[in-house]
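Data card: per-record layout.
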Amino acid sequence: MCEPYRLGDAIHFNGTNKNGITKEFANCHKQTIAGQYMSITTLPHDMRALSEVVTERCGKQITPETVVHLRLGDALVPGNTVREKRKPPAPRDLLPIIERIAPADQPTVYLAGVHNKTGLEKNGLYRLTEEYVSDVKKLSAGASVRLNGNPDDDFCRMVNAKTFVAGRGRFSEAAFNVRSYMGRETVQHTKLSGWDNLDGTTSVFTYPRTKRKDD
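The structure for this 215-residue chain is written out next.
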């Protein structure tokens, strides 16, 4: 039985046989960005390899839009202090932040990359995600919201956006890293982007990547 597709984890754990990222995972998902990446390198965070795959599968065309990645799903577990730092601001607080850091002359897309819908439905987290996304849609006139899309399509959109606002976690980190390798800037904000650290602090992504204590 195949592990669910997790692009960020595949980039992070490639070659380690940890967290389900194995040769079997690569074979199960060989038609994906992760599968292709794992077929040409045994290294984690190999941005040269990932950039080659991204260029082939996503193209080089920059899209004139702002893509905001929102880490939702398991980040919305109620009362879970371990994951508390992963939560994005409430929608009413999120929108003013985006208005300050995103260009006003291009459309904004909020991308909630919740790609394991079945697992989240079992514990009610998909419903919480839908509620959050619904509130964002109501409050952000003119913006579009993408939920539960194809992970590779979402990744391409993040990589090729003229403006990318990073979220938290490995999916956003992979997009940030490959954009950095390709010479594309990424917008980060401490309330939205980067890592929640074991010591309770948060930190934005860095490139070249620095090893974290909980890697």
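Known properties of this structure: Residues 154 and 168 are 15 Å apart (CA to CA). The chain has a mean pLDDT of 89.

See the next section for split statistics.
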